Amino acid sequence: MKLTLLLSLAVGVSSISIARHGHGNAPVVTLQNGTYKGVHSPQYDQDFFVGMPFAQPPTGGLRFRNPKSLNASWKGERDATIFSPACVGYGASQMGYNVSEDCLYLNVIRPSGGSKKHHGGLPVAVWIYGGGFAQGSGVDLRYNLSFIVQESVALGQPMIVITLNYRLSAWGFLQGDEVRNSGDTNVGLRDQRLALQWIQENIGKFGGDSDKVTIWGQSAGAASVGMHVMAYNGRDDKLFRSAIMESGGPVAISDPDRKSYYETAYQNLTQLAGCSTTPDSLECLRSLPFEKLNAAINTTSLSSIWFPQIDGDIIARHSSEQLKDGAFVHVPIIIGTNSDEGTSFSPKGVNNTEILKKSMQGSAPLMNASFADRVLAAYPDDPAQNVLANLGPTYRPGSPYGAQYRRSATYYGDTQFIASQRLTCETWSAAGLTAYCFRFNAIPAWATPLDGATHFVEVAFAMLNLLGVGYPPVRTPPFEGKPPSYANLARLMSSDWIRFVDTGDVNSKARSRTFGVPHWPKYSLRKPEGFVYDANVTSHVEPDTYRAQGISLINSGISSVYNR
Hints:
Elements: H1 3-9, E1 28-30, E2 35-37, E3 39-41, E4 46-53, E5 77-79, E6 86-87, E7 99-100, E8 105-111, H2 115-118, E9 122-128, H3 146-154, E10 160-164, H4 169-173, H5 177-182, H6 187-202, E11 208-218, H7 220-234, E12 242-246, H8 259-273, H9 281-287, H10 290-297, H11 319-325, E13 333-338, H12 353-363, H13 369-378, H14 405-430, E14 435-440, H15 459-462, H16 484-503, H17 509-515, E15 529-533, E16 540-543, H18 548-556
EC number: 3.1.1.-
Domain Carboxylesterase type B: 26-529
Enzyme class: hydrolase
């Protein structure tokens, strides 16, 4: 494989043309609004259609409004060989990419010829990126999906993959009384929803099967997937038949009902932008030049605080309540977390129990002292019982981490992701639904020993990004200097995802024969088990009962204490 070609053809590079790499007849598709001409990659035997809009540009009077469907058609062929800009965001993931308000575009990668060559409508995987709802894009090089498409063909289970953009930060998740009263709420999530509707209407023309769509995401992307499973109080709009969630899921990752907090934030933004004294502050924000509004949002206090919130509509109510009531789309899922998630979310300087207790109560304002003490008892100050097992049973980090950092990271990983994963798996089992639950336990080259198997480490494995495209210069390529077992783990994990997208089942005889791993059981309340992806020992099945007391306690307060 040539890296230079990958950088151009794999979904990743923004605002460049890939047409120069195509040879022979360019692929063409005619959709509802008109005809697109893509590009063929003979190296991967794949067709690319990139930079296709799925909504009207959310600019001018459409800024901060629910996305609007395309309302124009054209004659002749439009070029689909230039990646769109990323949406405006704030963080390292936007560095090196062109950004714009006009960003609601998606990209399609298919095996060459689509269903004509592969005999029947192909299953479709739709990738939704993470980034804390403040950064990320569908053109991020790390989310290289050419590899997994190529692998799907090699396995005889070819599929189409799609990446999309959605609005971020205040552009996509502005909150406040005026926003809520306008009905234009959580517009970034609605962007994703409109893209899924576009896929339903158009994917057949690419050779895909609209009845075989899997939505797939990581972190905020996985939370987005979870919100689509719960959207409109669990209404099934037939937009997908299955879901994959890595480090996130149906349970909100933060308090989704913070009206007073966001009203204050909205007032601060309007004041910074010069709109606080106008009769209609929201309309004033819409009318501002991009540069002025962007400068107001791009502050330390306002750039990364905007999260999805309950609006009584697309986010109907608390997700924990919906799970309890069975108000969610009943589809098969894969859901999992990484062993050391909490190292990405724990505070540092945790040297004693009082510091940890104060931090816990600060991050969960409804937590009283009694509940905090019960949590602390369930998460003892014993490194042997805490995360970062790679450091051994007695190691305590020094400055700046703190002597109780491993204890803190254990708690924060559980409260952020792992407890809600278990709650989701239990809920699916109780409803008689298929849930494949996993724990990822490999440390890539870019992660330090004090990171461990932290947040995001599994992404390159699931996408079979063995070359580490998109990681340098910010991070070391994940597989650099690693033994062959790491690449083999990536092949196992990506093939599991491929089988699930194709059939809804991760298991096959070939899986056991090729990788020497056991059958991955569906989650069961009678015998709760999950699959462990590991590169240092053979991947295996384990009882999903670790830290049972602490995780059960967190889930008992998921609504009353954590307000999720």
